[in-house]
Amino acid sequence: MKFWTSVSIVVVAVLAALVVPALADLDQRLVDLDLVLQPPSWQHLFGTDALGRDVLLRCVYGMRVSLLVGLAAGVCSSLIGTAAGALAGTWGGRVDQLVCRVIDGTSAVPQLLLGILLVALFRPSVTAVVVAVALTHWMVTARIVRVEVMSLRARPFVDAAISGGASRSWVLARHFLPNVFPHAALATTLMVPHAIWHESALSFLGLGLPPHLASLGTMMDDGRRALFSGAWWVSLAPGLFILIPTLAVSGLAGVLRDRVEHRRRSAELAW
Amino acid sequence: MSVPILLVVTLAMFALGAASPFDPAARYLGDSVGNATTEDLERIRHNIGADQPFYVQWWNWLTHAVTGDLGDSLSQHQPVLAVISERLGWTLLLVTVAFVVTMALSLVTGALAAIRHGGWFDRAVTTLAYAFEAVPVFWLSLAMIWLFSLTLRWFPAGGVSDVRTGALSFGGVLSHLVMPAVALAVSQVPWFVLYVKQSVRTAMAEDYVVGARARGLRERTVLVGHVVRGALLPFITLVGSRFPELITGAVLVETTFSWPGVAAATTEAGVALDFPLLAALTTLATAVVLLGNLLADVVYAFADPRVVTG
Lengths: 271, 310
Fold this sequence. Notes:
The structure holds two protein chains of two kinds.
Chain A: H1 2-23, H2 55-91, H3 93-108, H4 111-121, H5 126-153, H6 156-163, H7 168-204, H8 216-227, H9 233-270
Helix pairs in contact in A: 1-2, 1-9, 2-3, 2-5, 2-7, 2-8, 2-9, 3-5, 4-5, 5-7, 7-8, 7-9, 8-9
Chain B: H1 2-19, H2 24-29, H3 38-47, H4 54-66, H5 80-115, H6 120-134, H7 137-151, H8 170-204, H9 207-214, H10 219-241, H11 243-256, H12 262-271, H13 275-303
Helix pairs in contact in B: 1-4, 1-13, 5-6, 5-8, 6-8, 7-8, 7-11, 8-10, 8-11, 9-10, 10-13, 11-12, 12-13
């Protein structure tokens, strides 16, 4: 029940972000200065912003950008994390120590500050934000994958492969990576709402995506300015568009985590 | 252990600075960069040391930093140390108040929810905690500004001083403090509530609690003396590890409420590409996080005599 509610919200959000911009003939950049800061009405369900653009429509556009940034950052951080974790877990010893130190060091810098530093130094752009989020979020995946690989290393099928003459890279590619894949995939799913939140926070501070690009964060930044003109509705919709999918994904992640755990436990029992 | 991490983090920061496409000389000149010749730029680069490799720049910065000279802030037009010492007090005030509120609120509600596990109070608290955990703190801040400042006019929307006179007074600061402190606390409470609830529930199943009940101790004595005390231990160790989230929250809340603290200065330094200030503030925040980890270990060893330090 919880699972399907979460799945349907995520599916609707993704579909809306993909389909609506293609269907709606109205360009989100369409500025109508006769309709500046209109409160919500039947024509404009969430009102219009300071340039007379429909907030709801712009939010759907913004969500597409946020989703893409979130997904890209989630996948990048998982790739870095899996690579680092697998490297540390497979090779152990000095390599493991080095990777652990890098994880500790990176974790000690507050994520938002590192994000601010990166975006400030490399100009606000989509790439800068994706890199900033990926570089500040890969440690969780790395820790999970490292521990997972280490526990796999003690399993008989790995011993069998090594005594059969398999090299470390072979064991890594054929035995470790396929087995850690569900964990890495779960970490990616969990990372997407984090990444979206992060993108919005940076953009809200004026250190994220360029202001002309509609994302949930840049819209929130617009909303802050509009708030003092009495227009509460400009920031309402972007907030809901961050909040509801985040709740759905965290619900989904909870269910998935239970299933992965359950599968692992039953696999261990069967074995 | 913390010092090498701090050194590597600052070195990495200077490496990033060197890889940045921005020209520090042009940044130094600001708007008058159009009048400068290539030779001028070269000379400025040489004067501010930007023509040296990043590790040399880092070393110079580090050796000066040890003596208390953190360079000059480009955007605030004063020494970085002066900016930090001027603003640090405001951040400490905000964060301390928010933290005390967070602790009090989450300990009481978390423990009550755990004691009546499955009851209406527990369900309400858990649902609210999950919902609020997903609410972005900057959105919450905007909603609070709209409701309490612009609509009800109970509290001022930002800053610390009186709008008309610009004067600082105790009552004035207090009324300016309420909203940012509450916003920061509300952003931290959900995680703490869920955690307190979990550790109280675990503690309730411990043998010594069952034993205390079996000895016929009063329910209140069992709860306060055994359950809460037992649950507090795993809890305090995690307080220190939540410093990064607290700093992130402070950056967003201070910026939204124009609070004149160091966290808001980070945003300003980022927007203005004020590398000396940004480097110092990032180092400061990292040091605070490392200190939090250290504090967690020390407090844990202090609270649990079984832990051997060394």
